[in-house]
Amino acid sequence: MVIRNPEIFDLGQDRTKFWGDQGNRLDWFKPWDKVLEWNNPFAKWYAGGKLNAAYNCLDRHLNGARRNKAALIFEGELGDYRVLTYQDLHREVSRFANVLKSYGVEKGDRVTIYMPMIPETVIAMLACARIGAPHIVVFGGFSYEALKDRVLDAQSKVIVTSDGSYRRGNIIPLKENVDQALKTVTCVEKVIVVQRTGQSVAMQEGRDIWYHEVVKNIPIVCPAEEMDADDMLFILYTSGTTGKPKGIVHSVGGYMVGVSTTHEWVFDLKDEDVYWCTADVGWITGHSYLVYGPLANGATILLYEGAPDYPDKDRYWEIVEKYKVTILYTAPTAIRTFMKWGEKYPMGRDISSLRLLGSVGEPINPDAWMWYHKHIGKERCPIVDTWWQTETGMIMITPIPEVTPLKAGSCAVPFPGVKMGIVDHQGKPVEKGDSGYLVVCEPWPAMLKTVYGDDKRYEDTYWGQYAGMYFTGDEAKWDEDGYFWVIGRVDDVINVSGHRIGTAEVEGALVDHPAVAEAACVGRTHAVKGQAVFAFVSLKEGIVVHDSLIAELKAHVVLKIGSLARPDDVFLTDELPKTRSGKIMRRLLKDIAEGRAMGDTSTLADASIIDLLKKNVNQKT
Ligand code: PRX
């Protein structure tokens, strides 16, 4: 193993030159004039260059041996499977791109994709990219209300969905959700429906179209649109500190260079690998490291539709055995779940094909890291713990396999070409051994371009705290060797099973219930999920508490957002702790939820509330 000082990455490196060199890994219709035009905090990467993301993921692999290589291996929850070669995928994407065009979708028009994890989802994303229509993938677990908010914010013209989605043998009615969402929406002209489960669904005359019917008689040639490097590739909504999710905008050139470089280096990609990223395409990990990065690199990707415990708890290991997966990229919450189930499940399968393991989405506790290393990696596979965000688009802090010595629980050091730091509240770098706020010190290629329709929110949220630096919202420690240890969010965002949930969103959903006067949510440490939502709720005057009220409130959150945001605990209280100016003191509620000693209570308007809350919560839990 080559052991390098991690700081080598930071010694006088010319980052713009580095990313200029990496730009050459893609095929460009027109070369860029300038690697970076930086108009703080707005960046144009590869300014003047023209390219197409789908062309880079497909067409350029067709002249040679890769043409017949498996691009996508699909495993359905029911055990059905399909393999699409690069040539197959190219044909299907071109076909569907022509379908979109035939319904009037033009460059710049937005298309929402609300789908299960099936090949048509990847096909739809790449078809959008091919014609320059930004896609908005909405995770299939989001409720119709959440879907509606996103469709409206992006003003989507078309929705691609399916009749339903399999989950642990049940069917999630995606098309029905779309119908609910569109009741009061006027911007959507067409809904294209993929037949997956075969259950009967209502089709609205003139609006709804079956995918399998429209792809039949359509040309299979569709030229890839020449996009400016700075044009929008997609919008992906994520939670922030306010109630309204933000539409994170990624542009074609910088994003594609960033994800393909990191994908190749971090996963030490070889042509013969079978690469499996378990994230849903509805999240950024699915965009960058299931679709765009690996396909740009000509990898074979595995797409699994279902749950890890269906039909049994060894499903993942059965899949590894069946397809001889070599690289597995998953989340700590999944690893902790496997730990809970026990090692007999991976032991019952031949998983010796694995050679590299990855982790993403939340801090991985050393126990889970060791279990992953021992029982899945058999003490021979390196683990890359990768830190990044929807906004960063690409992996930012990570070990490089066989180069960076690993430490269980640390995501190691910034990727080459990325400059990150840890600063105190005044923006001054902390000393080694100290912790502080995690920032990015220089622009990077896959950085978000803006918040959709709201440049000011982009500037204020990310660049407004420390001059010239991007604020991640995370807290981290810098150890004596220069390694980064990410502790967690310092803003009002909760990380539940690696999913970002804004406390304000859950509070908004609770307050929407007719019985609720006020709500405050915090994250509480959870052994498997990392964090769980703990909600404190005060009811309107005169509301009589009945047995099913708590269940009703939880169900209301599921209706408004989706089951991923369902609070584990809802605690009813007459009052919430507030400052004299009326601000809810979430910090104290967090102390109560975690059952730990109280922080400073001197600014409270009425300190007696705290004692009462503590007593009552303790009695209940
Ligand atoms: O708090 C960090 C955590 O996930 C947040 C980003 O969430 P999202 O935009 O949904 O993207 C998740 C997948 C890239 C970060 O602000 N996070 C992500 N990866 C790690 C992590 N925390 C610790 N270690 C990681 N490897």
UniProtKB/TrEMBL annotation:
Keywords: Acetylation, ATP-binding, Ligase, Magnesium, Metal-binding, Nucleotide-binding. It comes from the Bacteria. Its cofactor is Mg(2+). Residues 13-57 form the Acetyl-coenzyme A synthetase N-terminal domain. CoA binds at residues 167-170, 285, 497. Residues 66-444 form the AMP-dependent synthetase/ligase domain. ATP binds at residues 361-363, 385-390, 474, 489, 500. Its EC number is 6.2.1.1. GO terms for molecular function: acetate-CoA ligase activity; AMP binding; ATP binding; metal ion binding. GO terms for cellular component: cytosol. GO terms for biological process: acetyl-CoA biosynthetic process from acetate. The keyword Transmembrane helix does not apply. Residues 505-583 form the AMP-binding enzyme C-terminal domain. Mg(2+) binds at residues 511, 513, 516. The modification N6-acetyllysine is found at residue 583. Acetylated. Deacetylation by the SIR2-homolog deacetylase activates the enzyme. Belongs to the ATP-dependent AMP-binding enzyme family. Catalyzes the conversion of acetate into acetyl-CoA (AcCoA), an essential intermediate at the junction of anabolic and catabolic pathways. AcsA undergoes a two-step reaction. In the first half reaction, AcsA combines acetate with ATP to form acetyl-adenylate (AcAMP) intermediate. In the second half reaction, it can then transfer the acetyl group from AcAMP to the sulfhydryl group of CoA, forming the product AcCoA. This is Acetyl-coenzyme A synthetase. It comes from Desulfosporosinus hippei DSM 8344. The lineage of its organism: Bacteria, Bacillati, Bacillota, Clostridia, Eubacteriales. The gene is acsA.
